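Entry type: protein chain
Record version: 2
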Amino acid sequence: MNPLKAPLHVQILVALIVGAIVGVLVNPGDVEFPEQTQVEIEQFEGHIHVTELARSETGEERAVFPTLHLSSDQFVRRYPFIEVPEGGNLEGIDQSIAVTDQKFRVFEDSTGISVSYTRNYNGNPLLTNDHFETRAELAHKYPLFLGTYDDYSKSVSRTVTIVAKWVGDLFLSLLKMVTIPLIVSSLITGVTGLGGTGKLGSMFSKTLGYYVVTSFLAITTGIIMVNIIRPGVGAVIPGAGETVHLGTDQSLPGIFAGLVSQMIPSNPVAALANGEFLSIITFSILFAIFILRAGDAARETLTNFFAAFFEAIMGLTMFVIHLAPIGVLAFMTYATASQGLDIFMTLAWYMLTVFLALLIHATVTMPILLKFVAGRSPWEYFRALSPALMTAFSTASSNGTLPLTMTCVEKNAGVSNRTSSFVLPLGATINMDGTALYEAVAVLFIAQATAGFELSLSTQIIVAVTALLASVGAAGIPHAGLVMMAIVLQAVGLPLDAQGVIIAVDRVLDMCRTTVNVWSDSCGCAVIEKLTTEEAVPATETA
């Protein structure tokens, strides 16, 4: 069989497998740190200064990375296994810290150079991640890693990683290029096709109800799995990696105030240019409503115009979609070529908990809704959506996958444009089952691993409610998943620093939860289609 003539889902599956194999083959792996290392802890001017020194065979000492200047609270959160006397006086601290199992990796892509450094302090794992735009920046902060980078810069691995990231980003840009025109034209044609504002209100209420119910079920599944597996018990997760720096108004009320503000665009043209999805959706729906309320001549002219525009943009979308196997191949090659394995072993139970919870939600909860509410065969529906799901997995972008999702739902699954054009754009923006589940599991994992933290039933309820509200309210915020996690951590009084090691495996879990997000949105189309079948009217009927 000619692979170029195979069905799209087969081509994408082959691309996933080939990309993973190529990435593993060119993965440079971790480098063992060649020099003995010791840790110096000093205190002056109200701060604790921690320096990690490497000693060469000649006795020369050099800092592995710049000295950390920490407050007492920051020191305790970063090094919970080092007991600090009351008042933060270091005189009573045992400073004999054995540094073992030191490994690091350096890789480069089209955005710059990344460093990941893992080691154990007295048997407790620590992780430091950093990113640089130039070699000079790397040399300034991590001079001991420069030799490894110079060797890597001449390797095939570097070339493959950079090219794969570049090609993958080009494909994602093509998808994003058609996303906004597709949302505008599909929403306007979908709303005008409903034939009246009463039917729009009915579809909106049913769609929003579906989102809330499925998100709550996802969060509940995640909490149950955390309590069964208990991945955080006995785990050490110091915040030695990247942390999130929040703005001054990132409380839950602040998030919702921003959400409402984003829904009303002061400049619709600017909203289109900047890709502000909530603003675009609001304006498109309002514009379509007033097309329905316009005179016969204006209504017919505008309806025909946007129908023709939608047909043209779908043609362009289909062209881009046929390039999906190339994009998926590039993304999978980059993902497997750049990720190490050690951190995954450290967080194996946590990752397994997230994966199993996502799997149960995707293969049990959603199929039940498909079978008994939508009256659809879950397996047939999954096959129809498989190209979109595999693309979502490789790109980790719900919005980027939206054009392909709409095509699969309409062309393969037979859902009407009337439903898909309304449910999918809204779902890609505010319906995040997988992300809400992930946030709940991550926060409870951190709580289990935090010494002295009481994980009561009321705390878990707060986590569930906050994750549910934040999953809706954080729509449109850059790096929404990280902001959401910070909101939930703050809600139950857990330290933000603990996100550091979680973020190290975020890319892999992001691929999984994005796939669940897209699957939930797609299933929502079938459910809403079934619930509103009796309301379907010919596209020419007016309000």
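Comment: Residues 238-249, 537-543 have pLDDT under 50 and may be disordered.
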